[in-house]
Amino acid sequence: MLAQEATIRQRWGELLSAANPTPGPDDLALVIAARDGDTRAFGQLYSRYARMVHGILLARLPHDAVEDVLQDVFLAALKQLRALRQPGAFGGWLATIARNRANDFYRRSAPSSELTDKVSRPDPPHSEAAAVLEKIRGLPDAYRETLILRLVEGMTGPEIAARTGLTHGSVRVNLHRGMKMLKECLEGR
User: Fold this and answer.
1) Is 76 in the same domain as 52?
2) What is the pTM of this model?
3) Three-state DSSP state, 76
4) Residue 45's domain spans which residues?
5) Sign of the CA dihedral running 95, 82, 37, 158
6) Which burial class, exposed, middle or buried, applies to 184 when counting CB atoms under 10 A from its CB (0-12, 13-18, 19+)?
7) Residue 108: enclosing H or E segment and its boundaries?
8) Which residue in 19, 134, 163, 174 could disulfide with 146, CB within 3.0 to 4.6 Å?
9) pLDDT tens across 59-84, in order?
């Protein structure tokens, strides 16, 4: 009985650790090395965080602008990395840069005019997926970002939490509420 209780406590501790992930020692070492000028370390950070940034941008920008702004986010991060005081906060800091660059995109973009009914355009090949993406983009920011990171970028809840700096509980709630809202939108409520 005591062995079983110890196993349960150990498993519970593992679950709690997974529920509140912190950047691993590899991430901290990479951030510190990149801050000291190691371009390989920054390349590895790019590999680890590009999906997160892509998801944040996809939630906020037109699809054809995402790749350019993604590169801009990482260039800005590289230039500002020395100003990062807490290397453990890299994911949240990078997510903030991505959100700010998305806002800047709309400030810089030229005003556009709406298409009229007279102008028709063919449906894109993945019109159903595009329609769902548009529904997701209509959700509040917190739900929109976490849903895109989960559904489009394929990140797990703990990955989203670790990369964005959110708690696992917040990510789980955002995903649950976001999925509920998305389902309601898709059902036409």
Assistant:
1) yes
2) 0.69
3) helix
4) 24-110
5) negative
6) exposed
7) helix 90-108
8) 174
9) 999 988 999 999 999 999 999 999 99
